[in-house]
């Protein structure tokens, strides 16, 4: 995710911008939420809400890696057929 490198490593900031047209605030909020979901910000905010012990963090990362490997294997199998 492009924003992770900036925030974690360099301390930079990432801005999402949504323009509100004709007082359509609900529509603008929908667009903002979609952008945040696409960038992975909502997932990251939920994950960082509370402190995560290193052992739990390690297990979570292993689980995510396993899920990615499984998905990649599934893609390769469907591509080969």
Structure description:
The protein has about 80 residues and is mainly alpha-helical. The protein folds into two domains: about 1-50, no CATH class; about 50-80. The chain is built from four helices and no strands. It has helices at about 1-10, 25-40, 40-45, 55-80. The radius of gyration is 18 Å and the shape is flat. It starts with a helix and ends with a helix.
Task: Label this structure with key terms.
81 residues; mainly alpha; 2 domains; disordered N terminus
Q: What distance lies between the first and last C-alpha atoms, to the nearest angstrom? A: 31 Å
Roughly how many Å is the radius of gyration?
18 Å
The helix fraction, in percent, is over 70%
Number of E-type strands: 0
In terms of DSSP E residues, the strand content is: under 5%
Return the string of H and E elements: HHHH
Q: From the helix content, strand content and strand pairing, which structural class follows?
A: mainly alpha
The number of helical runs is 4
Which residue ranges are poorly predicted, with pLDDT under 50 across at least 5 consecutive positions?
Answer: 1-10
Domain count, please report it: 2
Would you tell me the overall average pLDDT?
Answer: 84
Query: What does the overall shape look like?
Result: flat
The profile of the biggest β sheet is: none
Pfam families: Ribosomal_S21
Protein name: SSU ribosomal protein S21p
Family: Belongs to the bacterial ribosomal protein bS21 family.
GO molecular function: structural constituent of ribosome
């Amino acid at each position: 995710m492009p924003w992770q490198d900036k925030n974690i490593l360099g301390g930079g900031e990432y801005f999402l911008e949504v323009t509100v047209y004709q007082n359509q605030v609900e529509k603008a909020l929908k667009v903002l939420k979609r952008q945040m979901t696409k960038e992975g910000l909502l997932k990251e905010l939920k994950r960082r809400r509370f402190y995560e012990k290193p052992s739990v963090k390690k297990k979570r990362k292993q689980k995510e890696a396993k899920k990615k490997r499984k998905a990649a294997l599934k893609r390769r199998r469907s591509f080969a057929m």
